[in-house]
Each structure stands twice: as structure tokens, then as C-alpha cells.
Write a structure and sequence with these properties.
The structure is a homodimer. Chain A is of the alpha/beta class and about 575 residues long.
């Protein structure tokens, strides 16, 4: 076994061609062993085994600096840079994150998790090098799916101007998470079909030099190509054609499914847990929208590279036809597109994860909200209980979205209320409406909810009480109900419980009325406190005698946390909250 | 005179070729007469006279829909669509805004002010049309300077996939605001030089059809080209080569200066007011940075299409050499570039207007702050007293920036404090630092300030008092001082005055100490209240007896307001504030 002896790229350089190929096989085995029991990004890493070996064979990391876009395909890089145990020893699987991480290794230069950033970051490393008078190679590794994002294009266009050493490896596996979208992909196809010789070349049009490697899973070809561009004095693109999921039949056949996955049976590729079969907001949303589409030909669903966010499987996409659009990883375009569709009488619904809506603040503000167009945006996994990698937190969408004028940001508390609000959002023509899908797992209340939300900023009292009022927003409504029950049982306080429903405005009439028989208002929100909902309540009551306690997450970048720990650290357990409440009331 | 009789595009269609050319001359005269006394976007509109006439001659607005990118070049469109008086009658000059505006005319489809959005918005109009079964033409007009922004690329790449009617007019005048940046511009040059025939073609590489018009200021050529693509069934680019500033000598010669301007002498082109000669933050910053560059070769200034924001005139750019980078209109790239430079030992300073930093929230969060790289970002015109077009407000940067973990956002109160903070920002290596340049006009205090801000979140008491504490942030510090003086003079209250300095954190020790002898804390901030600084103070004191009054701007999209009116509407005059304060204290 070679893989066990690789403690740094030095050992890679000492292997023969034959040995490197054996190493590739061992790495693939290790990846499959780990990912089938642990879950993770499968296809992207299987496709990059040979290219990563060749990069480390040719270049001298960490002096030469490799930046992986998204960095979900950096597992092989980790194996070759002193972190092989995290892929060989089951007890150490969680010693490394799923992305590059400078705290893990001097071979990692950035913590990265969002797409399309590598070329710009690499331009920065190159500029820093030039200012200091260094001479190392700077390499960006970007997958073709990431080329659809605007930041990648800005980086490529500016790279050309730098006129200095910069190597951009374009890993073309003909796929994004799902199939690729955008006119660019026709050009990549043409380039593949002409062995890189087509005169019309996207990269050359941006002023970049260009090399094509058709055999992107052949170590010798890759080594030859990388060696030929090492120490280049001009920015150059090395376009390599790889196969996503390479070497594992099920992943080669079903590339979209094996982009990322939970544990699976290695022999068959079937999921190990029943997780995939449980009801989730994604599938429910897809089915709901398909019904809406059948009723109204103007309804159109939009996603940006992640059709699964709204349950649009290949089968559902086929059924929706022209009423479904995936724009590729291009969130800015998605929002502007939705605004334009709404301006011309369509009924667009753009589904997006909380962590990615950050990529289009300006489009939400300028393209959408200034124009007050009635697009609908369900925001998924905006919750402490969602993705917990530091680069994929769902904690920041409330401050991001709710402080934009004209936006109506709704916080349903359960599945039933979510679909009531989504239905209204599609029917109404007055406002841009975002809807914060409640929590990570489906909450069922069995209750019936209003179907009309056009009278804005009207909160609902669901339990009338006195002394303490609990404003429990969205997914934290359940927490608020439980807190009220415990307050009653333990302290004899019959609290008022309120479902605020609207994140973007205050129900001043209700807030004012609470002053009569309440001394304390408690707010609960499933996200960061800073710039959020609770602070607005605190501002409202600032000049009065009403006391306010705001609960939510502290402003910090947390990484791979346990939900329970984070709740406790933010005093979000009912024991802690009751302690605080009694302290204020005493 | 033809211009006076144009009440709609119908009249344009009835003119002969000769008459259209006479009309062009009249329009140019009207533009120069208005802009030389009123100010506005000069070069962009002079260059688009013929193309706009040809568009309205060929297409049937408003059934056919024209979307202007940035829309600062839509003056001719306004003249031809019933708004000619706003360009002919001095008393009516302010009847129209400087951008397209659906509230003004059915010929305008979006309120637009930021760049690179037109193709995506037009894609939306086209998709809306197709869902409804319409057949109108959708036209996006985008200048070459706007092609550098990622959203434009996302739009172009997705346009190709639509396979439906969409006409993209690329107005190539070889300029952004300053000269163009990015590899793409070499390709535009090649296309111009080959009369559009070069095989390597950026637009074709994105899957779009393509037509070239070399004579972009010749009405007949333009009419022929537009007529040939009218009712196209596929997305097509019409690349027209125009001259920025066409027909006015000084604007043809000095294109950067005449992009936008205050009133000028028509005969010479010289500015009418002394405004250009007054000291401003831009020039001061440029000179300061040039000094820093001389001391340290690692210091590099970055701008994104607006070198003037930090005073980098062509002369200063020459002096800075490789220590100055303008990336074109590509804010996302600028932030990632700065992060990369900082990661490799450089000292990047990215200067940007408040309204445009909105375009890179995700890059601030992911590329910069998660990685905690020490880039410095001066934010200009983040103030109520800055640009007052609805699309260019400087009111939202505090909620946008200050709720991102790891960011240190500083609020200097005057010129001297700003440069003390900027100097520290460049020297330190621990934090991403943003600095909110105080106000629109230079505030001079003549005072000396700390040179070290590494102990975070330490506010400064500048006047010790009791009962009322005024936390006056940044440019509103002056307002806070005046309020304190008036409180003392009129009410005999000797208030404490505090310069918070740090927007991104609370000085809990000081806030706690205030409880001893203060009953009310007043916060003042020069921006929107929602998600801002004051709300965090209100949250802090929520569970205590301390009363809090937050002052700032309401969350709303205001347009072409008078500063005085907006201050009054937000109770920001000292009379109103004292009334509120006495109400709370009574």
C-alpha cells in the first residue's frame, strides 16, 4: 500500500508512473470506504483523483499554492497532504472538514464552501506574491459547474489582465450538481469535440492562454500538461476533461444522485438509511408547485444549480416543462430573472438555500424590491438545525433579507402555514415575498391557517395570558410554546404566546396593547440575533417600561457544531430562559 | 424643430432619414443645454443619440420592451417617449429622474441604477412573455463597461439557453466610467478591428447569435441592423461601436471626466462651480495611500470601475503603478482579490461607495471574513447626505456589513480620525477592517486621535455627564454634540457624549457603567435603523431599567429627497429629539 506512507506531497514525487496509478486505485478505495459509511461529496472527488495526484507530483505545495473552488473536491488533496488517516481510520473520519481549511494544514489557503471564488482568490495570491517579489506558482482548480457564477467570470476576465503567473485548471466533468446550464457549456462541448482546437474559445475570448487535456483521468497526460505550464509567466487555462464519479459504477451512471450523499451500500449504491424516503420540505414544495403550475400556466419555478432544493427531480423537471428553469449556479441572475418574469405578468417562485441567498443581496434590493415586483422566494434551511459547516450556515438570512425595504419576509411555524403562505405569495401581485421555510425537518401542526396575508404585519396571539409575552418566530414557535408551558407549570405564569408571522414589520397595535398587562416580552428567532427580528422589538420598547429579552444565535462563525451545544451556548434551553425571565421579573 | 413635436415613438417612425438626422442634432443640443446647467450623465447619452432613435424607429415601444442597463444613458429614450419637456424647459428639468422609472412612463419597465442587470431582467420579461403566449420583442441595451460585472455574464450565459426572442444591444464605446478593464475588452477590440468577423467571439462562445455594426452613430446603419433582428426567434447580440461624448469636443477628448458631471461652461467644458477644487475625502484618500505605498511596497489600492472614489486620477494611477488595480465594475472580484492579497502578505485597500458594497455581501462574508484576512475597505458616501437617487442610497451599509462575524467596521467622526483608523487598518494583520468615511463633505476637527484600534469595541466618552448618554456614531457625532449642547442650554441636562467608534461590537463595560447615573441612552446613526447599530444598544438594555431612543432613517426606499426633509421625517432635528427625550424623562 502506498497511500499509508504518504505524509506529504514529497512522497508522491518519488513514485513511478505505475506506482502513481496504484496509488490512485488505493485512494479511490479509501474514498469509497469512507463515503459509503460516512457520507460526503462522492462524484466530485472520484473524478479528481488523477488530477490531484498530478498536481502534487508537478507543483511544490505549499510553496506553490493550489486553491480549490467550492473545495468539496479537495478530499484527495487532503489525503496527499498529511491527512490520509482521516480517510483510512474510521475513528478519525471526522478529524477533517469537508472543505479546505487553513487550520488543518499549511497546504490549504482558504476556508471555502461557496462556488465560483477560486480564480479571484488566486488572483489575490498572485498579486500578493508579485508585490512581495515571490516566484511561486498559483493554481486555481475550478469545476465546470462553478463557471456559471458571475464571480468566476469576473475573476477570469481580470486574470487575463494580470499578465503574470497564474494557472487555472478547469475540471470539465460535463456536470454541475445537476446537468450544466448556460450557453457556455456548448462551447466546452465544442472544445472537447475538437480536442481544444475550436477557434471560438470562451477562455481565449477573455484573453487567457489555453491548453486542453482530453484524458483528464490519465496521470501521465496530466503530469505532462501541468509540467508544460509550470512557471508560466502568463495566466493560462488548463482545460481537463474528467469523469464525475469515475471508477464507481453507480456514481458514473447516476451522477446527480452521487454528487453528495448520505451513507450508501457499496455493492448496490442504494442509500443505507431510510432518510431519503421521509417527507421533506423539498419534495412537498415540488409537488405543491406542480399542482399550481397545472392550475396556472404563468407559474414558473426557478432554482440556481440545486433543483433538489424544491424537489425538482429529473422526473418533476420533465413534468414541469417550460414552467421550470434551472439557471445553474447563478443566484444573481435567478433573482433578476424572477423580477423580470413578475414584471411581465408571470408568477415566479425562486427556491434557494439560506446560505446561498447571501449571493444576491444587491439583486434582491435593486432588481426586485425597488421595483416591488411580486416574485416569491422560499428560503430553505434558514435554521440553527440546518447545515453546520462554517461556509454553509443558515443563520444570516434574517438580517440580510428583512432589512430591505418593500420586501415581505414571512415566517411560517409549520408545514401547513408554509403552504398557506406560499399559495398566497403566488396569487398576490403587490409585493416581493420571501418565505422562511420552518426548520430542517417537517413540522406538522394539523392546524388550518389564514389564506390571505395582504394586511401586512399582523401578528397572531395563539395563547392569551399576562405578565410575559413570548414572540416565537417561525421554526422557534414550538420552542416558544414549550417555554410557555414550562413557565406555567413551574412558575405559575400564564404567558401570552404570539406567532409574529411577519419578519419585516412590527404589529405596533398589538405591541402597544401588550403594555397594559405585560411586563416582559421575550423574542425567539432561529438565526443570528444581530440585525434580526428581536432587536426591532427591543427598539420599539426602548423608550417604555416594558422589558425585553431577545433569544437567538450570537454573531459568530461556528463550524461543525452540535445543535444542542449551540442552543445551550446561546441560553436557548427552557431552563436557561426561565432563569433569565425570573431574574427580570423579580 | 422636430424635437418639440415628439410626444411618443409614433412621431419618430414618421420621419425620413434626413429628418431623423436633424432630430439627432436637436437632441444633442438639448442634452448639452440641460446638462451644462443642470449636471448629469453627459458622455453616455451623447453617444447613444442615434442608437436610441433607431431603436424607437424600428421597435414598437411600449409593446416591445427596451431595458437600459444602469439606465444612465436613457435620456434620449425619455425625450422620445413623451418626456421631451424635461430636456427643453429649464423649469421642468427635474420632472424626470436620471434613470428609467416605470412611474414616469409606460415605456420604462424597471427602476435601474446599478450596472450589469439588464440582460437578466430582459430574460425575465422574455420568459414572462413566453409563459403568457405573447410575441413582443424584448431588447436589453448594455454598455461595454457593464459587461465586466458577473450578473451580466450570468445573464448572457442564460440568455443563450432560452432559445426565444431576445435582442441584446451591446453599446461598445471602448469605455467604462474610466477605461475598461478585463480580458474581455481585448476581444471587443478584435471584433471591432475585424468588423465583427473574428472567429474567437465572446458572445458566440456563450452560444449567442451575433451581428456587428461598426457605424454605431449612423442612424441608417443602425436601423438596418435592428430591422434585421426584429422578431428574431433566438437570442442575438447586436454589437454597436459608438463614440462616448459624440458631438461635443471636450467630452470626446476627455471621456472619463465627462462621464458624469456637475454644471459646466458649454464653450470650454470647464466646471462652472468651484466644487471640483474643494478638498474631498476621495482626493485626500488617494494622496494618503500614495504616501503609504511609498513607505511599503506591499500596499495596494483597489477600485471597481470607479477609481475616483479614492481619488485615483489618471495621474495618480500612473504614480501608483502596480500598487493600484482597477478591476472594472466587478465588486465581487475586488473583495476576493483583496482577501487573496492579504492572505499572501499584501496590504490591500479596497475603496467602494456604500451603494455598491451591497454587490458583494457573500464575498465579504465567505471570501473575506470567514478567512479573517486583513483587507481594509473604506466605504464612501454611507450617509443620508450622499447620493439621493433611490438606486444609489448610502443608507444600508451598516446592516449589511456590521452583522457579518469577524468584520471590524469602524465609524470615524472626522477626517483626522478617519486617517488614524485607515493607517491602523493598513498596518494591522488580525482583522478584516471596513471604515465608514464620515459624511459627504469633509469634517475637520483639528483633534488628534488614537493610532491603535486593536483593542476592539472600546467606545470613547468625550463628555462625561449624567442622566442622558448620547451615543453618536460616525458622521452623526457632530449632531450628537449639538444635541448635548442644546440639552444643556435649554433643559439644564448635562449629558454624556460618546463616540462609539466601533459599529461591530458593544463596549459592554461602558454600557454597564452608564446604568449607575443615567436613565436614558440616545443613539444616532447616519443610515437606516433596521438591523443597525442602535438596535443592538436597545437589545443590550432590553432587560434593564435603562431607556433607549434610537435615531436614524426609517426602512424605506426614498428618492430624490432633500436632506432636511428626511431628517425631519425621521425626527432627527434637535428640537424633535429634545421633545422625545423630555417625554421619556418626565
Amino acid at each position: 500500500m502506498y497511500i499509508e506512507n504518504i505524509t506529504s506531497p514529497r512522497e508522491v514525487k518519488q513514485l513511478s508512473s505505475e506506482q502513481l496509478n496504484l496509488l490512485a486505485g488505493e485512494i479511490r478505495q479509501a474514498l469509497l470506504a469512507k463515503l459509503s459509511t460516512h457520507g460526503g461529496h462522492i462524484g466530485p472527488n472520484l473524478g479528481m483523483v488523477e488530477a490531484t495526484i498530478a498536481l502534487h507530483y508537478v507543483f511544490d505545495s505549499p510553496k506553490d499554492k493550489i486553491v480549490y473552488d467550492v473545495s468539496h473536491q479537495s478530499y484527495v488533496h487532503k489525503i496527499l497532504t498529511g491527512r490520509n488517516e482521516a480517510f483510512l481510520v474510521p475513528g478519525k473520519y471526522d478529524d477533517v472538514s469537508g472543505y479546505t481549511n487553513p487550520q488543518e494544514s499549511e497546504h490549504d489557503f482558504f476556508t471555502i464552501g461557496h462556488t465560483s471564488t477560486s480564480v479571484s482568490l488566486a488572483c489575490g495570491l498572485a498579486k500578493g506574491r508579485d508585490l512581495k517579489g515571490g516566484n511561486e506558482n498559483i493554481i486555481a482548480v475550478i469545476g465546470d459547474g462553478s463557471l456559471s457564477g458571475g464571480e468566476a467570470y469576473e475573476g477570469l476576465s481580470n486574470a487575463a489582465e494580470m499578465g503574470t503567473n497564474l494557472i487555472i485548471v478547469v475540471n470539465d466533468n460535463e456536470m454541475s450538481i445537476a446537468e450544466n446550464h448556460g450557453g457556455l457549456y456548448q462551447n466546452l462541448k465544442t472544445l472537447r469535440e475538437t480536442d481544444g482546437k475550436a477557434a471560438c474559445n470562451f477562455f481565449r475570448a477573455l484573453g487567457l492562454e489555453y491548453v486542453y487535456v482530453g484524458a483528464g483521468n490519465d496521470i501521465d497526460s496530466l503530469i505532462a500538461a501541468f509540467a508544460s505550464v509550470k512557471d508560466t509567466l502568463k495566466p493560462i487555462v488548463v482545460h481537463i476533461h474528467t469523469e464525475k464519479g469515475k471508477g464507481y459504477g453507480p456514481a458514473e451512471t447516476n451522477k446527480e444522485h452521487f454528487h453528495w450523499g448520505m451513507p450508501f451500500d457499496l455493492a448496490t449504491g442504494s442509500p443505507k438509511t431510510g432518510f431519503d424516503n421521509e417527507e421533506d420540505y423539498c419534495d412537498l414544495t415540488g409537488r405543491f408547485l406542480l399542482e399550481e403550475m397545472r392550475k396556472d400556466p404563468r407559474v414558473v419555478a426557478i432554482t440556481s444549480g440545486t433543483p433538489a432544493v424544491m424537489g425538482f427531480t429529473p422526473e418533476l423537471r420533465k413534468q414541469a416543462g417550460r414552467q421550470f428553469v434551472d439557471v445553474g449556479i447563478a443566484e444573481e441572475h435567478a433573482v433578476a430573472l424572477a423580477s423580470g418574469i413578475a414584471a411581465n405578468g408571470g408568477r415566479p417562485v425562486y427556491g434557494v438555500y439560506s446560505t446561498f441567498i447571501q449571493r444576491c443581496y444587491d439583486q434582491l434590493s435593486q432588481d426586485l424590491c425597488i421595483n416591488n415586483n411580486p416574485a416569491v422566494i422560499p428560503v430553505f434551511l434558514g435554521t440553527i438545525a440546518g447545515m453546520n459547516d462554517v461556509t454553509h450556515l443558515g443563520l444570516f438570512d434574517i438580517p440580510l433579507i428583512s432589512n430591505i425595504p418593500n420586501m415581505v419576509y414571512l415566517a411560517p411555524t409549520c408545514k401547513e402555514e408554509y403552504f398557506a403562505m406560499l399559495g398566497w405569495g403566488i396569487r398576490q401581485t403587490e409585493h416581493p415575498v420571501a418565505i422562511r421555510v420552518p426548520g430542517a425537518m417537517v413540522v406538522e401542526s394539523g392546524e388550518t391557517f389564514d389564506t390571505d396575508y395582504s394586511e401586512l404585519n399582523r401578528y397572531k396571539i395563539t395563547q392569551a395570558g399576562e405578565t410575559v409575552a413570548i414572540l416565537a418566530l417561525g421554526a422557534f414557535y414550538t420552542l416558544g410554546k414549550a417555554l410557555a408551558a414550562k413557565l406555567e407549570a413551574e412558575q405559575g405564569i400564564h404567558a401570552t404566546v404570539i406567532n409574529p408571522r411577519y419578519i419585516t414589520g412590527l404589529d405596533e397595535q398589538m405591541l402597544e396593547a401588550l403594555k397594559a398587562d405585560h411586563r416582559l416580552v421575550v423574542t425567539l428567532e432561529d438565526g443570528v440575533l444581530d440585525g434580526g427580528f428581536g432587536e426591532k422589538i427591543a427598539r420599539y420598547y426602548g423608550s417604555s417600561a416594558m422589558r425585553v429579552l431577545n433569544y437567538g444565535a450570537r454573531k459568530e462563525f461556528v463550524d461543525r457544531y452540535a445543535v444542542e451545544d449551540l442552543m445551550k451556548a446561546n441560553r436557548l434551553t427552557d431552563v436557561q430562559m426561565i432563569e433569565d425571565i425570573m431574574n427580570v421579573l423579580k
